[in-house]
Amino acid sequence: MRFLTRRLVMPNDLNYAHSLFGGRLLQWIDEEAAIYAICQLETNCLVTKHIGEISFESPALQGDIVEFGLATKGVGRTSISVSCLVRNKATKKTICLADDIVFVKVDPETRLPAPHGKTMELLAQQTAEEIGKLNIGV
Ligand SMILES: CC(C)(COP(=O)(O)OP(=O)(O)OC[C@H]1O[C@@H](n2cnc3c(N)ncnc32)[C@H](O)[C@@H]1OP(=O)(O)O)[C@@H](O)C(=O)NCCC(=O)NCCS
């Protein structure tokens, strides 16, 4: 699982208990997972089909930086299942795990599921190539 994105917890992200509001985190997870799935499947014609069990393990507070780890859990004919782990950047403590987020590719005209043509093997190869192109050397 690679942690490629981060967000800063701002005052308007908080609940009445002064910690990160669950709804805000769900919005961020859906968005981060969607971006990940779009890049994996190389199409932005995706819709969120299913979000499985989510557990909120520890709170995030104002000023915390949270980071999002994403991985491909499974690939079907029209769908992809993604795992998302959110953790505190400083402490590495898990804030939330969403283990089964399913996106389906849809045809832009009919809105019906459409084959994406990817396999786990293809995605692994594609990811390895992308990592090779990342400018993250020191
Ligand atoms: C996405 C949508 C077109 C799928 O329609 P559908 O009738 O469920 O389609 P299918 O039964 O052919 O399933 C399509 C894929 O989703 C998967 N799927 C369906 N229901 C699922 C579920 N509950 N959990 C996980 N995967 C599911 C199927 O396994 C299939 O994957 P595969 O082709 O990779 O094997 C339709 O449900 C839809 O438009 N939903 C609204 C999506 C949306 O607007 N999301 C934004 C949030 S409001």
Which key phrases capture this entry?
single chain; 138 residues; alpha+beta; Thiol Ester Dehydrase, Chain A; 2 helices; 6 strands; 25% helix; 36% strand; binds coenzyme A
How is the secondary structure organized here?
Elements: E1 2-8, H1 22-41, E2 46-51, E3 54-56, E4 65-75, E5 79-88, E6 94-105, H2 120-133
The structure holds coenzyme A.
Coenzyme A binds at residues 47-50, 76-79, 102, 104, 106, 111-113.
Structure description:
- This protein has 138 residues and is of the alpha+beta class.
- It has one domain: Roll (Thiol Ester Dehydrase, Chain A).
- It contains two helices and six strands.
- Strands 1, 2, 3, 4, 5 and 6 form a six-stranded antiparallel beta sheet that branches.
- A hairpin with a 5-residue loop joins strand 5 and strand 6 (94-105).
- The longest helix is centred in the first third of the chain and has 20 residues, at 22-41.
- The mean pLDDT is 94.
The unique ligands bound to this protein are: coenzyme A
Total number of distinct structural domains: 1
Terminal CA distance: 21 Å
Shape: globular
**Top CATH class:** Alpha Beta
Strand percentage: 35-45%
CATH superfamily: Hotdog Thioesterase
Global mean pLDDT? 94
Radius of gyration: 16 Å
Percent of residues in helices comes to 10-25%
- Low-confidence runs (pLDDT<50, min 5 residues)? none
